[in-house]
Every structure is written in structure tokens, then in C-alpha cells.
Design goal:
The protein has helices spanning about 15-30, 55-65, 70-75, 95-100, 105-110, 130-140, 155-160, 185-200, and strands at about 5-10, 35-40, 80-85, 115-120, 145, 170. By secondary structure, it is of the alpha/beta class. The protein has a domain at about 10-80 and about 85-105 and about 115-120 and about 150-200: Rossmann fold (3-Layer(aba) Sandwich), CATH 3.40.50.360. Strands 1, 2, 3, 4, 5 and 6 form a six-stranded parallel beta sheet that branches.
Length: about 210
Amino acid sequence: MSAARVAVVVDSRYGSTLALAEAGAAGAAGEGAQVRLRRVALGEPEYSVETGRDSYVRARARLETMPRAAIDDLRWADGIVFGSPTRYGLMSTPLRAFIDEVAPLWREGALIGKVGAAFTSSGGMHSGHEMTLINTLLPFLQHGMIILGVPHSVPELVRTKKGGSPYGAGVVSGFDGHDGATAEELAIATALGARVARVAAQVEPEPAPVRLS
């Protein structure tokens, strides 16, 4: 069984989602996977984002050092993990734009049989983070991929009082965004990345073109 190739693609504002991305990447690498940690395109943040906040400045600086995700990263990967802040129960606009950008892969059938997973952050416990995870997983199903979540055999998923879900990793950062990721939330993200690497190493992708006529 050869080592898997895992692409982690992230969007973040104050750093909570980025912390999950780095934990997931570390979990995959710990299973021997080759990992590409990538970001979506950087642009003007949403109106509600406080760009003068230290956490925003630090996260933005870190994101600027990371390579931008590209269609070839998904062709290369056996496992793909998407993460973004929660926006009304949906993924962020930049992540959605990237998903639209790689739409040619659907016509190619290039992602059929690959493994997909998701992570997110939200301000409150009832701010739609689980809906965001589910909505982020739906494009993977459209591409014919195998989606993974977090099983309850992960001890931190049973103990967590905030983020983390069977549908993916998560952070509940507080509505002011100051709470950051807890040790349990990071452990869940690490476990998810490790699981993606393990399963992707066992699965044989089955790319096949989509014929529309």
C-alpha cells in the first residue's frame, strides 16, 4: 500500500479555520502521506470582518506565504479536504469560487473514487457549522468521490463541548472570534486528516469522462 497524496485547501479570516487546516495536514503527514497545504484566492474580506484585528493580520500574513490552490493540486491528490469559515450555513465565497474554478474536473471525471472531507469554523454553537460541513461535502458527491467524517471512536469527539462533528472538524470561536481552537477541536482535525490519509491510501480512484451526449 503506497502513501497517499492529500491536498488541504483552506480559507480563513481570524486563523481558526487555518489552525484546523494545519492540524489536518499534520495528521495526514503523520500517516506518511504527501501533503499539499493550499489556500484559496485572497481578496477583500467580507464587510463584517475586522481587518485591523491582530488575529486577522497574523492569519492573512500566514495565508500570503502559502501557495494558491490550483486545479492540478486536485488532480494530484488522492484525498482532498476543504475548509472555510461558516457563512450562513454555507462555505465562504472564495472557497465556492475555487470549486467553480475546478469544474472542468467534473467533465473529466478526474475525481471519481477519490476521498473528500471538510472542516469549518463558526461564531456560535448554533451558527450553522454542521450545515456548512454538509454543504461543503456535497460537491464531492457530485464529483463521484467518497466522503469521510469523524467517527465517535475519536475520543475528543465524544468530549468536545464546542466544535467538532461527525460530519467534519470544526471550531466554535465565539461571535467576536477571539476564542480560537481548543485542544479537542485541533485533535479532531488531526484525526480527520489522518483518516483521510489512511483511507485514501487504500482506495483506487476510478476516473472516467462524463459523456453528456
